[in-house]
Amino acid sequence: MKTPRLALAATLAAATAWLAPPAHAVGRLIDVNVIDRDSGTQLPVYRHNGQWWVAGRPGARYAVQVRNATGERVMGVMSVDGVNVISGDTASWDQSGYVLSRYQNAQITGWRKSRDEVAAFHFTALPHSYAARTGRPDNVGVIGVAVFREGDVPPPRPLPRPAPRYESPAAGERSAGVARNQASPSPSASARAEAAPADAEVDAWQSQKSAPATPRLGTGHGEREASYSGTTPFERRSGQPDEVITLRYDSRDNLVAMGIIPAYAPPPPGRPDAFPESPDARYVPDPPRRWR
Questions:
Q1: In this structure, are residues 23 and 268 in contact, taking their beta carbons and an 8 Å threshold?
Q2: What is the rounded average pLDDT of the residues 240-244?
Q3: 202 forms bridges with which residues in the sheet?
């Protein structure tokens, strides 16, 4: 008999939304991509030798955006640099994860410190990453999500019917109406629709690989931020994940040096400025002095 596991629910205030599937996501049951939070841009995904890569910007905060592409609840056990993002333990499939409702979209913005806070993810040099600072540098540079479908949930027990009693016809009609209103309608079966993975493949420029141009990137333990969550019971359908999604990352210079990104590919655009000629906030100036 399977033991229910308590998993952290992805009820993240201001980070959860119901959106259309992203254009450059990786995954089948869950779509995964990375958002540069400082520029607001979604990082392009590159495929090279059977692996998926994104180019991080050193110093930038980022979020792992996950979207449940199915019509049922799923749980994603998430790791960054080989470390579970909820517990801080060296990552394993049987640990706590985020539970996503059907078609739910959420952004995981940091290492969870409590039900109310996270320490922000940000790209940093490998020696300054959280994994390296806690003595686990071997798996720096990878984001992973192990996806589990939910086991069959037994239907609720029907409420016992009250013992019949003699009533006038009018009272009997009123009593039956109350019983019908109190009875729980049987839920209809949800259609399970799995979104096809988006085509995010970009043919990498085939060139002679060289040594990384800059130090490898890892994920740092940034400033505390508000991020609200709760817990919910979740029984896995199987002890083995139904899907394992792996997304590697490094700096753009290093990905160019390794032949993953074409050297001539333009960098992703930054966030446009609506008032480029007014970089500083200004207030109402004083009126001119009256000359005597």
A1: no
A2: 94
A3: none
